[in-house]
Amino acid sequence: MNKDNTNQNPKTDKSMPKSDMTALDLASSIINNSSDTIIATNLNGEITLWNNGAVRLYGYTREEALGKNISIIYREEDLPALGERIKKVIQGKNISNAEATVIDKFKNEYTVLLSIDGVKDKKGKINQLVGLTKDITEKKQSENNLRESELKFSQAFDNSPIPVSILNLTTGKRLAVNNAFIKTFGYSKDELIDEESIYKINLAVDQKEFQLIVKKAIRDRAIFEHPFSMYSKAGEIRHTLVNATKAYDSNEDIFIFSLLDVTERKKTQKEYENAKEKAEISEIYLDNIINNIGDPVFVKDEQSKLLLVNEAFCTLLDLTKDNIIGKTLAEDILPDEQEGFLKITGRKKEIFKTSGGKYISPTLLENEMKQSRFIEQILVKCLHAY
Predict the structure, then answer these.
(1) Would you list the DSSP string of 209-232?
(2) What are phi and psi of 27, to 5 degrees?
(3) Is residue 136 within 8 Å of residue 112, measured between CB atoms?
(4) What is the pLDDT of residue 328?
(5) Closest CA to 131 of 37, 200, 194
(6) Are strands 222-231 and 126-135 parallel, antiparallel or unpaired?
(7) Nearest Cα residue to 226 out of 236, 213, 214, 237
(8) How far apart are alpha carbons 342 and 347 in whole angstroms?
(9) In the predicted model, is pLDDT for residue 386 greater than 60?
(10) Distance (Å, rounded) from C-alpha 194 to C-alpha 173?
(11) Closest by CA position to 192, among listed 178, 206, 205
């Protein structure tokens, strides 16, 4: 808005009516006590008015600023843009709330909203410029921080390997899904976001369980690893553990749901349980076969520890299975008692002659057979030797 020019020091003008001086005193008080900076310059850019707001923001006292060029509060690279704005004002246009960067006495930078208007003399020509700046540095920083925070959240949200969905439990709308959610359940983002209502059409296998999760989330404001099964677009059931937390305080219940897909884990667990059940059945079946053999039967490992014995073997030693399994045949037996055991100390002859007149050495055959990990000791006896 263009203004009529007035004396910058009205109290020295004795011809001015008292009522006008009172009005100017009021205007001067308002200018000086404004929280915004108000600066006036002539057309050469020399500062003619410097209010208290300017003193606070820029650090120059009134005495230091008056008469100086307005360029003291601008970076050198911003002076051409300032010149263009001044030209527009002189041409009769005004600048309103243009964002600009200014500097203080100590070269600290601030972001401001700049408004510039022209002041006309009695002939209607602009001979003064009045600029008002509002410091928005903190607001701008907050906006930048918020923007950066939103960007980081967006990147973490989209790139998370865990399916994540943001739901408005008040309106029943799905607000967002990440790439892992789309990949896991096979739907496009548009299909999921355009869903009429998660309460009418949703992916839950058990609708009652879904309602329970919603109530629990609203009541507790969070959910931790709640088992939940969902359908993929192909009709496959995906088993998940649901975690949810309220996004922020608002009148609506907006929650971030993350779904830990445990489908493969459940398959592996089921396969393990089936294998374990089959092994137990096989063990029972093997026990029945071995126990029906009348002769003593036992199975040892490479350290000669007994892994399996039948009832005939237990009867022979007069011991229970619990006292035999995991032990060797000679374990816990006193040396005196071991004297009664049958031991192979050697053979009387190393070469035998068969009835056909051939000479054989059983050692070669024994050594060959002892290569098996199932044979610890062996003695080949030639019944027809003489």
Answers:
(1) HHHHHHHHHHHHSEEEEEEEEEE-
(2) -65, -40
(3) yes
(4) 80
(5) 37
(6) unpaired
(7) 213
(8) 14
(9) no
(10) 8
(11) 178
Please answer whether residues 164 and 243 qualify as being in contact, where contact means their C-beta atoms are separated by less than 8 angstroms: no
Place of tokens 């404001």: 221
Given a cut of 50, whether residue 1 has pLDDT beyond it is no
Contacts of 157 (CB under 8 A, 6+ apart): 164, 176, 178
- pLDDT for 292 beyond 70: yes
279 SS3 class: helix
pLDDT in tens, 225-263: 999 999 999 999 999 999 999 987 667 899 999 999 998
For a pLDDT cut of 90, what percent of the chain falls above it?
A: 46
Q: Which two tokens stand for residue 309?
A: 């014995």
All domains of the chain, ordered by start, with CATH? 3-140 (3.30.450.20), 160-261 (3.30.450.20), 344-386 (no CATH)
pLDDT score of 276 more than 90: no
How does DSSP assign 93-156, residue by residue?
--EEEEEEEEE-TT--EEEEEEEEEEEE-TTS-EEEEEEEEEE-HHHHHHHHHHHHHHHHHHHH
- d(Cα 294, Cα 298) in Å, to the nearest integer? 12
pLDDT in tens, 316-358: 878 888 888 888 866 655 566 555 555 666 667 777 777 777 7
